[in-house]
Amino acid sequence: MARKTIKVDYLARVEGEGAFKVVVRSGAVESAELNIFEPPRFFEGFLRGRAFTEAPDITARICGICPVAYQMSAVHAMENALGVAVTGSLRDLRRLIYCGEWIESHTLHIYMLHAPDFLGYAGAVDMAHDHGDIVRRGLALKKAGNELLALLGGREIHPINVRVGGFYRTPRRREMAPLAERLKWARDAAIDTARWVAGFDFPERERDYTFVALRHPHEYPFNEGHIVSNHGLDVTAAEYDEHFEESQVERSTALHSRLKGGGSYLVGPLARYSLNFERLSPLTKEVAREAGLGPACTNPYRSIVVRAIEVLYACEEALRIIERYEEPDAPAVPIEPQAAIGFAATEAPRGLLYHRYRLEPEGTIAEARIVPPTSQNQASIEEDLASFVGGFLDLPDDALRHRCEQTVRNYDPCISCSTHFLRLEIDRG
Amino acid sequence: MHEASLMSKLLSRVDAVARAEGAPRVTALSVWLGALSHFSAEHFVEHFGRASRDTIAEGAQLRVTVSADPAHPNAQDVLIESVEVEA
Predict the structure, then answer these.
(1) Dihedral sign from CA coordinates of A12, A15, A18, A24
(2) Are A392 and A403 in contact (CB under 8 A)?
C-alpha cells in the first residue's frame, strides 16, 4: 500500500465557540441567531446513582469560576428535600463564601474580559501594556475573593469543604483577621473600580426586559428568597417548573429557557440590582448613584458598572459577616436521607441557578436537573443582538463583530472567556 | 470539554487535507503539543481515539511531540505537523 506524507503545519485552535448569523433585508434586521457549539456535558446524568452527599463536589466541577454557586444550589436543594434548615454562623459562612465568588468572578469579567471591549483592546494582556496599574488592581481584587474561597472552601477553585448541612471544617476567628484587612483594601479598590468603569463610553441602548432574580425580605440575595420579576412573578424555587420551561433549538447545544406563556427574560446583575436596589448598603447605593446608576438599570452595556457595584457590596457584606462571626458548635447539622424531592435557586454571579433533585429512600440521586443562568439568558442575548445590531449596520464587518461580541459579553456568559469567540455571518441581501 | 471542540476542529482539518489528496484513509498523524496547551500526550491520544471514531482518521497512528517551552510563541496551541495518507 503506497503512502504519502503531507506537511501541514496547521494550528488547531478553538477559534470560536459561538457563531452569530444576521439576515438584513432592506436595511433592517430580519433575523438574528446565536449558535453555541459547546458540547453537552451530561452533569445531570453523572449525578444519577450517586449519593446526595456527593452533589456539592460533583456540581462544583461544572465551572471553575463559579463553583460555589453550583455547590450552594446543590446543598440548599438537598436540605430542602430532607427538611433541614442551616442557620446562624453556618448560614453566614455560606453567604461569606458566596461573597468571595462574586468578588473573584465579577472582577475577572470586569477587568479581563469586558473592560478591554470598552477601551479598544483585544484582551487584558494588551490592555496591561497601557494600563498596568489598573490590571494589577484587578488581579489583587480578584485575589481577595479567591482568598475567601480558599479559607472557607479549602481551595480557590472547585472548593472541597462545602457539604450538605454545612461545612467539613469551619474557620477559627483568628483565621478571619488577615482576610478582613485585605477586604478593607478590596472595598476601596471596588469603589475605584466603579468610578473607573463609570467613565467608559456606553452605547445608549435600553430594552424593556423582564428581570428575574431572587428577592429576600431584608438582604441583597445570595442563597435565599423568592423568585420574583418586575412583571409580578413571585414564586418559590419549588414552583420554578410551573413558570419556566427549557427547549432545545436545533442551531445550538445550549437549551433556551422561557417564561411559560411569557417569552425571554433576563437573570444576572442587571436583574438582581434592579429588583433589589433597596437591599444594598448605604455606601453601595451612594457609589451606584455617583456612577450614574438609578435604582434600576436597563442598559445592558452598563452591566459592567453594576458588577462593580456588586463587588463593592460583596466586600462590605463579607466584612460585616467576619466582624460578627462566632465559631459554630459543629461544622454541620446532621442529616438523614429519605425519599424526597428538593428544589433551590441561588444567585450565581451570572444570575439565577436552579437545581432540582429526586432522592431514593437511602439518599441516592434518582433525578437531577440543573438550569444555569447562561441558558436562561440565551434568548435574551439573541434579542439584544437582534434589537441593537440594526443600529450598528453602517459599521464595517470587523467593527460590527466587535460590537456584537461586546453585546454578548454584557451577559458574562460561560462562553465569554474566548476573547475572539464569535464567527459573524452577515447576509446583507 | 474544550478538548472536544479542539479535536473537532483538528479532525475537520485532517479530513480536508486527506480529501484534497483524494486519499481514502489517514494512516498517521504528527502533532506538536505546546507546553501550555493543557494536553499531555496520553490525554491527546485518548481524546483523538474517541473523536476520530467513524472518521477518515480512525485508527491512524499518532506521533506526538510535547514541547516543554512555555515561552514558545505557539505554547498554547496544538500544531498538526504532517498527515500521512494512503496514496
Answers:
(1) negative
(2) yes
Place of cell 450614574: A292
Q: How confident is the model at residue A417 (pLDDT cuts 50, 70, 90)?
A: very low
State the average pLDDT for chain A. 91
Q: Which segments in chain B show pLDDT lower than 50?
A: none
Q: Which residue, B17, B27, B19, B13, is CA-closest to B58?
A: B27
- Do the chains contact at A11 and B6, CB–CB below 8 Å? no
The vertex-A395 CA angle with A394 and A399, nearest 5°, equals 165
> Given the C-alpha cell 434592579, which residue does it identify?
A274
- Which residues are within 8 A (CB) of A235 and not within 5 positions of it... i.e. 6 or more apart? A226, A227, A228, A242, A243
Max Cα distance, chain B (Å):
38
Q: How far is A10 from chain B (nearest CA, A)?
A: 5
A64 touches B at CB < 8 Å: no
Task: Look at residues A183, A195, A187 and name the one whose alpha carbon lies nearest to residue A287.
Answer: A195
Distance CA(A142)–CA(A145), nearest Å, equals 5
Candidate from A8-17, A216-225, A256-265, A400-409 with smallest mean pLDDT:
A8-17
All residues of chain B having their beta carbon less than 8 Å from the beta carbon of residue A9 are 79-81
- For A241-309, the DSSP string reads HHHEEEE--TT-SSPEEEETTTB--B-SHHHHHHHHGGGS-HHHHHHHHHTT--SS---GGGHHHHHHH
Is A1 an interface residue toward B (CB < 8 Å)? yes
Q: Supply the pLDDT for residue A422.
A: 65
> Per CATH, is B2-85 categorized as 3.30.2320.50?
yes
Ordered by where they begin, the domains of chain A are 43-427 (1.10.645.10)
CB A409 within 8 A of CB A117: yes
Would the CB atoms of A8 and B27 count as touching at under 8 Å? Answer: no
- Given phi > 0 = left and psi -120 to 50 = alpha, else beta, which region is B38? left
Q: Read off the pLDDT of residues A81-103 as tens digits, 9 standing for 90 and up.
A: 999 999 999 999 999 999 999 99
Q: Does A11 touch chain B (CB under 8 A)?
A: yes
Cβ separation B79–A17 shorter than 8 A: no
Q: ipTM score here?
A: 0.86
DSSP 3-state of A337: coil
Half-sphere exposure of A103 (CA within 13 A, CB side): 37
Q: Which residues of A307-342 are buried (b: 16+ CB within 10 A; e: fewer)?
A: bbbbbbbbbbbbbebbeebeebeebbbebebeebeb
Local confidence band at A15 (pLDDT 50, 70, 90 cut-offs)? very low
Q: What pLDDT does A418 receive?
A: 42
Question: How many angstroms separate the CA of residue A60 from the nearest CA in chain B?
Answer: 15
CB contact under 8 A, A12 and B79: yes
Sheet holding A422-427, edge to edge: A28-36, A18-25, A422-427
- Pair A103, A314: CB distance under 8 Å: yes
Chain A nearest CA to B58, separation (Å): 16
